[in-house]
């Protein structure tokens, strides 16, 4: 008889879901009006510049670009990212406060591995990025939801939650800019209140800035890390603004925390890829990212506007939705509709989206869904939203 290997697995593996598998499986799907994954548009990938940078690195720097790296990243690449942080956020990380990671989810996992014991409390926005929920959940914390409203995380409600808690949470995970999945952003006044609140309660804020650079008008409120570097560890990714295949991100925060993250990385993937780090360094130092971002913002702004217009035409009587000012996502509320069941019916109409239930850590909600407009062209948006409305009406009639 074949061995039942499932019985031999660790409990965390047996019980783990696969929240990202279905989304990633649709990455290259054809014949689908695809609003599912938060994938950057391939037309924005800087292939010409990358070809020249790669050729130069292979000719002039193979001993570094093709070698293993320190777990916290190549020193020159870290300095390039630190220099960029000054321009983008007005603060430069001190030595020891910045490391390079293998994307944003790597940073989430390293923080969870470093900071959490079973039973520790982690606060997350409700809803929030489903990859972060699963990343934290692997280390057996208690996940508690913190409410969002139109201005982002409700800091007043959070203060009440902290005051009523038997013990202060270890971490608060938040996406203050063009949040995934809601598209909402945290107001500037709340940012300052949040930093002070978490400083008072000794809660480490995990600030995910995956979409910060993608405000449609190019503006950004002060980052939480710039306001409170003593109580905030910022994590970010270059997947959305450079290219996702490079698998690079960063973590910046208190040096004693970052040092332990680097130690944790030695026992995961050891280091982020050297070639990607050097490519990014050259791209940043050449000012190429600064020239690239306006094109990306314009493309995503046009697609967000097309989604908003199509929803106004087809969903005015069916639901409500957010109108983001940046990022990749619109959050659609359909009262009385189970969006998990809706996904199958929508597929019959050649439409894909992400049901909302997976974005909640504590209080399940099945009446929302996420629409990503980042990789679907404007002519397809109208047809996709119209087809989705047909699927919703059919579901309502059942």
From TrEMBL:
Organism (species): Saccharopolyspora halophila
Protein keywords: Aminotransferase, Pyridoxal phosphate, Transferase
Cofactor: pyridoxal 5'-phosphate
InterPro entries per UniProt: Aminotransferase_I/II_large, Class-I_PLP-dep_aminotransf, PyrdxlP-dep_Trfase, PyrdxlP-dep_Trfase_major, PyrdxlP-dep_Trfase_small
MF terms in GO: transaminase activity
Domain of life assignment: Bacteria
Name used for this protein in its record: PLP-dependent aminotransferase family protein
One Pfam family from the record: Aminotran_1_2
Record domain Aminotransferase class I/classII large: where: 50-385
């Amino acid at each position: 008889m074949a061995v039942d290997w499932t019985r031999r697995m660790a409990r965390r593996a047996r019980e783990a879901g696969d929240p990202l598998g279905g989304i990633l499986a649709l990455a290259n799907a054809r014949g689908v009006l695809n609003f599912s994954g938060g994938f950057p548009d391939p037309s924005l990938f800087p292939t010409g510049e990358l070809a020249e940078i790669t050729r130069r690195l292979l000719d002039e720097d193979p001993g570094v670009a093709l070698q293993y790296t320190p777990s916290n990243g190549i020193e020159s690449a870290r300095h390039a990212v630190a220099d960029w942080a000054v321009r983008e956020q007005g603060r430069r990380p001190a030595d020891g406060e910045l490391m390079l990671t293998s994307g944003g989810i790597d940073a989430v996992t390293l923080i969870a591995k470093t900071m959490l014991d079973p039973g520790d409390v982690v606060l997350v926005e409700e809803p929030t990025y489903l990859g972060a929920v699963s990343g934290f959940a692997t280390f057996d914390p208690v996940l508690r939801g913190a409410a969002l409203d139109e201005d982002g995380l409700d800091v007043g409600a959070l203060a009440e939650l902290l005051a009523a808690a038997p013990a202060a949470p270890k971490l608060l995970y938040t996406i203050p800019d063009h949040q995934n999945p809601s598209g909402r952003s945290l107001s500037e006044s709340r940012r300052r209140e949040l930093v002070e609140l978490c400083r008072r309660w000794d809660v480490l804020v995990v600030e995910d800035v995956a979409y910060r650079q993608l405000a449609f008008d190019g503006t950004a409120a002060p980052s939480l890390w710039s306001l409170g570097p003593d109580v905030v560890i910022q994590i970010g990714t270059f997947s959305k603004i450079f290219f996702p295949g490079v698998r690079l991100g960063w973590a910046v925060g208190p040096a004693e925390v970052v040092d332990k993250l680097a130690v944790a990385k030695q026992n995961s993937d050891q280091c982020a890829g050297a070639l990607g780090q050097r490519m990014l360094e050259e791209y940043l130092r050449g000012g190429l990212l600064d020239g690239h971002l306006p094109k990306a913002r314009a493309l995503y702004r046009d697609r967000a506007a097309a989604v908003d217009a199509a929803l106004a035409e087809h969903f005015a009587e069916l639901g409500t939705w957010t109108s983001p000012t940046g990022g990749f996502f619109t959050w659609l509320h359909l009262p009385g509709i189970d969006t998990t069941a809706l996904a199958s019916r929508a597929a019959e109409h050649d439409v894909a989206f992400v049901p909302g239930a997976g974005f909640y850590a504590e209080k399940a909600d099945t009446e929302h869904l996420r629409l990503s407009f980042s990789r679907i062209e404007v002519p397809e948006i109208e047809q996709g939203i119209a087809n989705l409305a047909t699927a919703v009406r059919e579901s309502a009639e059942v």
